[in-house]
Amino acid sequence: MAELPFTSLRYPLSVDAVRGRIAQEPDYAAHIEQLVLQVLLTAPGERINRPDFGCGVKRLVFAPGGEAAATLAQSVVYQALTRWLPQAISVSQVTVRANDAELAIRVAYTVKARGERRVLNLQVTP
Question: Which Pfam families match (predicted)?
Answer without folding.
Answer: GPW_gp25
